[in-house]
Design goal:
binds zinc ion, 24% strand, single chain, six-stranded mixed sheet, 9 helices, 14 strands, alpha/beta, binds fe (iii) ion
């Protein structure tokens, strides 16, 4: 396995991801909301954190940056477009840049919408997408600093990645997202089955992240504005995907 990825659940519903590249032993932590559980998880495994990868500036994604930096001397990597809001940023990345953790290369995408300077990291060889608060299992981030058109453009960049990509998002929001999703695409059998599986997993206290991008393409309404079922529920025409996306997001905000 080229990237050994560990989930660290923190706060109410955040996931921090620890990723070790097996050939080099380099270890990146993605969006450390806090430091202590991250340092403990690394220590437990005998891993040394060499990099922090931030997706965006929110406190529940960068809160542990400086403490982890102080403890490990790691390098902090984040969005160029938000350089002023990422504590300790040293390596600035933007759309189309590549960045390597040992032998594993990530392509970086600018994915504004949730915040204006959000990025996602796609490790193609490891089939891993670290997308922060842009794409969630059955959901997408709230539009705090962007427009529906921007967010749809951002999600469109992620939607074309391979189906077997694992989606390592930053929150366990899946069950509430599923409750909403079935209301806007009630005829989607794959979605109904997934919603039932999510309820079963959560009843046992199991995580639902990562999912695969293939599952998201088939069931996540925020990746499906071209679905005739969704368009029918919303009463919107098929020729304006941004409008369908915007209405889906607006309904979720009120749900
Ligand atoms: Zn956020
Ligand atoms: Fe967040």
């Amino acid at each position: 396995m080229p990237l050994d990825i560990v989930r660290i659940p923190v706060l109410n519903d955040n996931y921090i991801w620890l990723a070790r590249e097996t050939a080099s032993g380099l270890v990146a932590v993605v969006d450390p909301a806090v430091a202590a559980p991250v340092l403990a998880a690394a220590k437990e495994r005998g891993w040394t954190i060499t990099h922090i990868l931030n997706t965006h500036h929110h406190g529940d994604h960068v809160g542990g940056n400086m403490e982890i930096k102080a403890a490990t001397g790691c390098t902090i990597v984040g969005p160029r477009a938000d350089r002023d809001r990422i504590p300790g940023i040293e390596v600035e990345l933007g759309d189309g840049d590549t960045w390597s953790l040992g032998a594993e290369e990530a392509v970086v995408y600018d994915v504004p919408g949730h915040t204006r300077g959000h990025i996602a990291y796609w490790f193609g060889g490891a089939k891993a997408l670290f997308c922060g608060d842009t794409l969630f299992a059955l959901g997408c981030g709230r539009l705090f600093e962007g427009t529906p058109a921007q967010m749809w453009t951002s999600l469109s960049k992620l939607r074309v990645l391979p189906d077997d990509t694992k989606v390592y998002c930053a929150h366990e929001y899946t069950q509430s997202n599923a409750r909403f999703a079935v209301t806007v695409e009630p005829g989607n059998a794959a979605l109904a089955a997934r919603a039932a599986a999510i309820d079963a997993a959560r009843a046992k206290g199991e995580p639902t992240v990562p999912s695969t991008l293939g599952e998201e393409k088939a069931t996540n309404p925020f990746l499906r504005p071209d679905s005739p079922l969704l368009q029918k529920t919303l009463g919107l025409p098929a020729n304006d995907l941004v409008a369908v996306f915007a209405e889906t997001r607006a309904r979720k905000d009120k749900f």
